[in-house]
């Protein structure tokens, strides 16, 4: 599977309160959550995203509380994947559970600028940015099976015995 999109660049230690501030957690509507995605950093973020775009971030992306609304808000803006130097563990797993692709790629922030075009080749575990190929760690095994099913709920439904 190949994903192509424009980059929305964020730094280190982006926490879940910045991704979806607590004031917006009064709804379960994923599109309403998406309309406030990244409000703690850039209130115009949802208007900038085009379907298929990709977040690139630094270290410890998704730190803070374990709220599942954070990756849900990102997914429903149209973002297809998040590529980060590293992820907070629970945020990473929440991405898998809802079908949002998290990819770890050391050194990516040195190779990319906001607005650059990026291509992710999930099968070959390569990211191409500005003509340069980077080796990355994509989910595999059960994580990839869950993502391929569209998330944990769909995976469970498909594997009911």
UniProtKB/TrEMBL annotation:
Known pathway: Amino-acid biosynthesis; L-leucine biosynthesis; L-leucine from 3-methyl-2-oxobutanoate: step 2/4
InterPro entries in the record: Aconitase/3IPM_dehydase_swvl, AconitaseA/IPMdHydase_ssu_swvl, IPMI_Swivel, LeuD, LeuD_type2/HacB/DmdB
Keywords: Amino-acid biosynthesis, Branched-chain amino acid biosynthesis, Leucine biosynthesis, Lyase
Enzyme Commission number, as recorded: 4.2.1.33
GO molecular function: 3-isopropylmalate dehydratase activity
Domain of life of the native organism: Archaea
GO-annotated biological processes: L-leucine biosynthetic process
Coiled coil: none
Record carries keyword Lyase: yes
Catalytic activity: (2R,3S)-3-isopropylmalate = (2S)-2-isopropylmalate
Top EC group: lyase
All residue ranges annotated as the Aconitase A/isopropylmalate dehydratase small subunit swivel domain in the record: 41-105
Function of the molecule: Catalyzes the isomerization between 2-isopropylmalate and 3-isopropylmalate, via the formation of 2-isopropylmaleate.
Subunit and interaction comment: Heterodimer of LeuC and LeuD.
Family according to the record: Belongs to the LeuD family. LeuD type 2 subfamily.
Protein name: 3-isopropylmalate dehydratase small subunit
């Amino acid at each position: 599977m190949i994903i192509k999109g424009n980059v929305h660049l964020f730094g280190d230690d982006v926490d879940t309160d910045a991704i979806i501030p607590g004031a917006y957690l009064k709804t379960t509507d994923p599109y309403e959550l998406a309309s406030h995605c990244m409000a703690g950093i850039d209130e115009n973020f949802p208007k900038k995203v085009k379907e298929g775009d990709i977040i690139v971030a630094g270290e410890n992306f998704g730190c803070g509380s374990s709220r599942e609304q954070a990756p849900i808000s990102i997914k429903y803006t149209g973002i297809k994947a998040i590529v980060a130097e590293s992820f907070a563990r629970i945020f990473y797993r929440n991405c898998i559970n809802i079908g949002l692709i998290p990819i770890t790629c050391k050194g990516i922030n040195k190779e990319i600028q906001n607005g650059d075009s990026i291509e992710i080749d999930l099968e070959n575990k390569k990211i191409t940015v500005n003509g340069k190929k980077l080796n990355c760690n994509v989910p595999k095994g059960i994580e990839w099976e869950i993502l391929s099913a569209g998330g944990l709920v769909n995976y469970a439904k498909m594997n009911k015995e």
